[in-house]
Design goal:
elongated; mainly alpha; 9 helices
């Protein structure tokens, strides 16, 4: 755990210490972390993937419920995607004039290229693309991707992403003693 904490600084240490003392808040915490990961700029400051590993291991060690944790994280990630998609739909052609895209217009260009080339697969894989993760839903909104198709992709990718980062820690945590 020390390596994880030292690589992400004080924020990770604070979250882990908080959760250690407030295990009953694990589900709301992963919901918030999943949501934050889908919001441009916020996701840069919240290492949700790393924290999912830590939260998963702590919950595994303390006998938490994996399904509840997974559903909460997934719901937060889906809501983050939907909010970001909605922002893209709302601003549409003006999105490149709104911060943070006004400072980094290449993100919208890259997002368009990915969605043009890969379609729904860009949204599915986008959860695993780090920095582009929150910019693909906003780009999908700008491009007016079919909402049902977007939701389908968001649900599948959020289930996969949260599971991939929660399950290993949870499984290993079950072998640890609290």
């Amino acid at each position: 755990m020390q390596t994880l904490s030292s690589s992400n600084g004080g924020f990770t240490e604070t979250v882990v210490a908080f959760l250690r003392d407030n295990q009953y808040l694990a589900d709301p915490l992963v919901f918030i972390l999943g949501f934050a990961e889908g919001i441009p700029v916020v996701s840069l400051f919240v290492p949700s993937s790393a924290l999912f590993l830590a939260v998963g291991s702590m919950q595994g060690a303390f006998g938490g419920n994996f399904i509840s944790l997974w559903v909460s994280a997934t719901a937060g990630a889906i809501l983050g995607d939907l909010v970001t998609y909605g922002i893209g739909r709302y601003f549409k052609d003006d999105a490149q004039r709104v911060w943070p895209l006004s400072r980094r217009p290449e993100l919208l260009i890259k997002g368009r290229a990915m969605i043009d080339r890969w379609g729904i697969l860009a949204i599915l894989a986008g959860k695993f693309l780090g920095f582009m993760r929150p910019f693909l839903p906003i780009t999908a909104g700008v491009m007016e991707m079919n909402f049902t198709v977007f939701c389908f992709a968001s649900v599948l990718s959020s289930l996969a992403w949260s599971g991939v980062f929660l399950a290993p820690g949870f499984g290993l945590g079950q072998f640890a003693t609290p």
